[in-house]
Design goal:
By secondary structure, the protein is α/β, with parallel strands linked by helices. It has one domain: HUPs (Rossmann fold), CATH 3.40.50. The chain is about 50% helix and about 25% strand. The chain is built from six helices and five strands; from the N terminus they run βαβααβαβααβ. α2 runs antiparallel to α3. The model has no long low-confidence stretch (mean pLDDT about 90).
Length: about 150
């Protein structure tokens, strides 16, 4: 069995691509893993530089975690409605590192990573978010690109 791994980066193009990823997974009888990462590395850095105090960091992190959980549940519900098994995964840390570590250590035999793109632009930086660019440039897994107008 094959599995699609779809990082939920929060970008507008990523949110728009969810329905297409679910449809694609259903068409090929594949399971889908939706991965969301709470970027606490960035929060802790902001605390170290005295941009946030510890209490603010905690409040923001808790809010981001709750939002990520709600979004993962939404994607799982959309998958269920589309007849696709969606496994929601919530991680904490550096988004790119966490996503790639999770995929690398998952027990699935056939791993396919999906990234979302926006239309227009001449360069990778214009079409993909930072996390999606890193995945495309550095992954050893099969990868496909999906977007609003793809």
């Amino acid at each position: 069995m094959s599995r699609i791994y779809f990082p939920l980066t929060g970008s507008a193009e990523n949110r728009k691509a969810i329905a297409k990823v679910i449809s694609f997974a259903g068409s090929f009888n594949m399971k889908l893993t939706a991965i969301s990462v709470v970027n606490n590395e960035l929060l802790f850095k902001m605390e170290r530089y005295k941009i946030f105090i510890k209490e603010e960091t905690t409040i923001i992190k808790n809010g981001m975690t709750k939002d990520a959980e709600n979004y993962l549940n939404h994607v799982k519900k959309l998958g269920s409605e589309g007849g696709v098994e969606v496994t929601p995964v919530l991680l904490e840390g550096d988004p790119y590192s966490c996503i790639m570590d999770y995929i690398k250590h998952d027990k699935e035999d056939n791993k396919i990573v999906c990234v979302a793109k926006k239309c227009g632009g001449e360069f990778l930086k214009d079409i993909f978010s930072a996390v999606e660019r890193k995945i495309l440039l550095n992954t050893t897994f099969d990868t496909f690109v999906i977007g609003e107008n793809v």
